[in-house]
């Protein structure tokens, strides 16, 4: 497992704030910053809920069609591009995955790092008993206590075996963990251990209590 130098949230926003897209700013006047390194980079991840530092406004029925179709709602959110995700401290882990039951090296920032970039105080959120919802592009939804997600060591993977994950495959983002390292999963069938993983991850919500449904 290796880590590379990190970039602070302050530096991340400073580097990206000047590239705010005009259409987005016009549609959501409260947005003052977007997490883009340049105007050509589309958003790949949106985070909403308790404790975030928003860089965009609320749900837009015209622009946010997948979020709407999946029943998500928010008044403000933090969004960022793949370049911004890639700029965060990278973690690598070798794990056995369910699809071919072979070992692969996955790389990307830890979930904790991504949430901190969005402004969330992880220690406080865990202490207050917050929950996390992770939404995938196919409609699959993972919900669990934030403290459990942190204990499981989720990775927001952007690459596997040195190759980028892509839409139509497992990416571009994959919320994944090392199932073999989690004690409470050792007595479950191997393929059942990945029920909390979300390939095609595109939206995360932090809530004060367990979500309904």
TrEMBL record:
The UniProt record lists the keyword Signal: yes
PROSITE patterns: TAT
Signal peptide, first to last residue: 1-27
Keyword terms, alphabetized: Signal
Domain (Oxidoreductase molybdopterin-binding): residue spans on this chain: 106-165
A Pfam family per the record: Oxidored_molyb
Gene3D superfamilies tied to this protein: Oxidoreductase, molybdopterin-binding domain (3.90.420.10)
Protein name (record): Molybdopterin-dependent oxidoreductase
């Amino acid at each position: 497992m290796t880590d590379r130098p990190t970039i602070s949230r302050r530096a991340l926003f400073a580097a990206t704030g000047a590239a705010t897209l005009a259409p987005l700013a016009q549609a959501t006047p409260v947005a003052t910053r977007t997490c883009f390194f340049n105007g050509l980079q589309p958003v790949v991840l949106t985070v909403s809920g308790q404790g975030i530092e928003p860089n965009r406004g609320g749900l837009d029925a015209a622009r946010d069609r997948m979020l709407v179709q999946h029943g998500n709602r928010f008044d403000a959110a933090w969004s960022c591009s793949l370049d911004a995700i890639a700029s965060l401290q990278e973690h690598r882990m070798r794990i056995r995955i369910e699809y071919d039951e072979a070992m692969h090296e996955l790389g990307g920032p830890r979930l904790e790092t991504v949430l901190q970039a969005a402004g969330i105080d992880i220690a406080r959120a865990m202490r207050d008993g917050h929950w996390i919802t992770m939404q995938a592009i196919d409609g699959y939804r993972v919900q669990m206590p934030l403290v459990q997600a942190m204990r499981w060591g989720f990775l927001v993977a952007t690459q596997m075996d040195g190759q980028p994950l892509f839409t139509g495959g497992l990416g571009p983002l994959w919320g994944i963990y090392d199932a073999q390292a989690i004690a409470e999963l050792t007595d479950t069938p191997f393929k059942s251990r990945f029920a909390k993983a979300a390939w095609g991850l595109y939206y995360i919500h932090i809530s004060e209590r367990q979500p309904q449904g």
